[in-house]
Amino acid sequence: MSVNFNNTMSWLQDEMFFQNFDKLIKIFPKGRRVGATEGGIHFLTEWALTDKPKNILWVDVNYNNIDRYVQEIWRPLLEQYDIGAKYQQGKHILKFYNTPTTIIFRSAERPQGMEGFKYDGVFINEAGIVLKNKYLYNNTILPMMMDNRFSRLWAPGTPKGVNTLFHKLYLRALEGGDRYYGKTYTSYDNPFLSSEAIKELENDLPSSVIRQEILGEFIKQEGAIIDPSWINYKEAPADCEYKMYVDLAISQKTTADFFAVIVMAKDKDNHLYVVDAYHNRLSFNEMYKTIIRMNEKWFNCEVGIESIQFQAAMADELFRNTNLNITQVYPQTDKVTRFYPFAGKMERGYVHLSKYLPPYYERELLDFPIGKVQSGKEADPEIGHDDLCDCSSGCTHMFFGSETEYHIYGGIN
């Protein structure tokens, strides 16, 4: 069986995946929304149906991304073209009925599951994030490719700083040769993306990272994202919409992350107001009671809870025993990328802070993402945390609904 998706793909997707097939390692820095993920899905499906590859590895940031891509892109594609295949979600394997090809999906969070195969093809989605892990590439992916001299690798992704492995591989690709190929694609290269849509993307970014996120350039990231001049104080007006975002923490050790809560309001002009912020190290029951108490204070507004691992248990507990409007939220990318829309709105004067916020909130904003500030030989446990910044990102996305950084599962109440 064979199928041709050329009429559904842009020139960019065709060039990225079907051209220069003889090159073994292909590195593609890119701006946002160039269509690399969907293009990769079309290409790997078409390649699988040639009966040539036996095992293909898809590496992604996490399994939530993988399951979403299978459900929202892969499954409709297979149904549209009547391609027989079965996705085993527990094993994260896609097996085709009429071809020997198996696509094996693995998360960069648990690279040990990748070993044991000779892969004919490797697709690294969000390579700018995944390839922050040098060990994953050098000690897991590369050795398995070396076991198969015909193996091919595609690595598209938005850059995340200079002197990273992704950056070094791209520089190596620019040198040419028989093995490597590299090219940069900007958001403007996507013929299906209007200039208005790109402008909307830019409005959600700090000006300092537009070159990275839109033009796909490797830029040197220095210091904190938030400039102190961007901070302004203003109380929320009447008739605002309110949302609350919770980031749970399982440990009460002094070096552990904080349990954190942010409450935001949005006015009719889409200005955001950070009206409440709280962090502490609490037990499960104390966190449970704090969420209820703060929600009562802020008009029983919608509550977003990161539902990764044990945090899903809190969402389930609140759902069973309260009338809170709970929304389960699944982060899709790294914390810095998720923070950009909030920071971009703050730079443009669309974010206001209440003068009644605790001082540690502003301190955390101005410190992110530098990390812990060293005090003598050990880090100060009260400085350098990013839990409230992550909550600010989550609240922003609850209001404006982008699934690039978060996947939001409606409500469970």
In short:
By secondary structure, the chain is α/β, with parallel strands linked by helices. It contains 13 helices and 17 strands. Strand 15 (about 375) and strand 16 form a beta hairpin.
How helix-rich are the residues, as a percent range?
25-40%
Strand tally: 17
Shape: globular
Radius of gyration: 23 Å
**SSE string, helix = H, strand = E?**
HEHEHEEEEHHEHEHHEEEHEHEHEHEEHE
Strand content: 15-25%
Structural class by secondary-structure content: alpha/beta
Major sheet: order of its strands?
3-4-5-2-6-7-1-8
Per DSSP, the total helix count is: 13
The unreliable regions are 372-381, 406-413
Major sheet attributes: 8 strands, mixed
Task: Report how far apart the termini are.
Answer: 45 Å
Mean pLDDT: 88
3D structure, described in words:
Helix content is 34%, strand content 20%. The chain is built from 13 helices and 17 strands. The longest helix is centred in the first third of the chain and has 18 residues, at 63-80. The chain is globular and about 65 Å long.
Keywords:
8-stranded mixed β-sheet; 7-stranded mixed β-sheet; alpha/beta; single chain; 413 residues
List the helices and strands and how they pair.
Elements: H1 11-18, E1 25-29, H2 36-48, E2 55-60, H3 63-80, E3 85-88, E4 93-96, E5 102-107, E6 121-124, H4 127-130, H5 134-146, E7 152-157, H6 165-174, E8 180-182, H7 195-203, H8 210-213, E9 241-247, E10 259-266, E11 272-280, H9 284-297, E12 302-306, H10 311-321, E13 326-331, H11 335-347, E14 351-353, H12 359-367, E15 374-375, E16 378-379, H13 387-400, E17 406-409
Parallel strand pairs: 1-7, 1-8, 2-5, 2-6, 6-7, 9-12, 11-14, 12-13
Antiparallel strand pairs: 3-4, 4-5, 9-10, 10-11, 13-17, 15-16
